[in-house]
Request: fold
Amino acid sequence: MTVQELTHFIGGEKVSGKSGRFGDVYNPATGEVIAKVPFASRDEVKEAIDAAEAAFPAWRDMSVARRANIVMNFRNLMMENKTKLAEVICQESGKTMDDAEGEIMRGLESVDLAIGAPQLVKGEYSVNVGGNINAYSARYPLGVVTAIAPFNFPIMVPLAQTSMAVAVGNAVILKASEKVPMTALFISELWKQAGLPDGIWTVVNGDKTAVDELLENPKVHAISFVGSTPVAKIIYEVGSKHGKRVSAFGGGKNNMVVMPDADLEQVANSFVSAGYGAASQRCMAISTLVAVGEGTADRLLPLIKEKVEALKVGPASENSDYGAVISQQAKDSILAAIDKGEAEGAELVVDGRKAPITTEGKGFFIGPTLFDHVKPGMYVHENEIFGPVRNIVRTKDLDEAIQIINDHELGNGVTIFTNSGYAARQFTTEIEVGMVGVNVPIPIPVGYYNFAGFKASRFGDGHMFGPDQARFFTKTKTISERWLKESDDKEMSFAFPSN
Ligand code: NAD
Reply:
């Protein structure tokens, strides 16, 4: 098998890596190296930033309608190339085809919103705020901005981070995840075909070295980061210290609260799909089912166990329910988490280490694992496990469930299943989590609503998609203007101007 050498995408061209450093890109479903990705040096990133900065003024000055048209062309090209793009995603991420196509469509919601950018960046205008003075505020693009992306959504997250940034007139640099760089390079060609001027869309590939330059270079004005919580915190601190606007999204440990009156068949289906889909490598995956009240968990367990044991794990080509995890290292840490859960006394109901997986030992597959009687403080409760290891926690009432969730460090998503409007209202009011569902498995907002968690799931005040993106990637100028007649009074006054 040939291992292709990937490039960066700078100034509208593929540019080979010059640092001499490369990373391996795997097909997680086979465990084979399929490509080498260049790791940019700081000087290479500097050159990319300079090219983006040079391209920025012409893009800023283009009419908002023409910019929106180019974003629309890009959307059309994405649809024309949907199957090819999904294949690239499957190849480098280990996802199933359904899942890859699903993430393309969800990512396109951000592009759709960006096509409407002219509506979102409209300013305000007041006449006669003082003698012959009118005032207005208007939004201007920031200049060079950057997105640093995770591996688990090779297309949806980068589109959510960048579409609006492009549409409102910035020059955008994407530092794709070094584990899934092929998707970012694929869409770079589509941006070019769509008519985006060279230099407005850049992909620099690399690791911490590339990120350090983006964090510290004074020509970069905003950073959108999505990844794990420890890295999100560093990005927020370092980026802010260097005077940048930073919005950094971290991990999740998301709960599904089940009240005794819920429809248990609906709950079981929702928990298994939202818990194990994409091998649980979703920041909004359900990690823990919190069964409320006497007997709820006991009634649910047989339903869930049967469905979990029936999950088909394997490559995209085999019509699997979920595929491989991203790397051998990820697989090892997930297996270690199962060991810790057992050692700490959680009850192992389904053991993924023993699941029959028919790939002859190839690829980074793990069977689904389920723990019952999990308690706060246990490793599997406190930590985001980015793999198919899920928990059941039992509580006596809703207050206890809310307390346990609010006490957790992370607060990305949460959902409640109930037929009681009162319980749902108490829950949505008291829960300290950014995205909340009622009788829905995964409460990811649609693209035209703002997306962000609370607590250590997000640093900074920005949202990832939704209208807030237009605010995050623009700066507001407020302009007061007066035009005098020749004959008007032009006296000098030292009083502080008041009206
Ligand atoms: P990661 O933090 O390892 O990497 C994310 C990005 O940061 C990559 O581009 C990587 O190259 C870079 N990076 C890694 N270490 C760095 C360092 N020390 N300094 C500078 N840059 C560094 O995350 P991942 O494993 O790629 O993605 C999975 C994580 O992302 C999970 O925790 C998941 O919950 C989270 N995630 C969150 C959201 C959200 O919306 N909150 C969405 C998707 C994924």
Notes: The chain has two domains: 4-250+457-479, 254-438. The first strand starts at residue 4 and ends at 5.
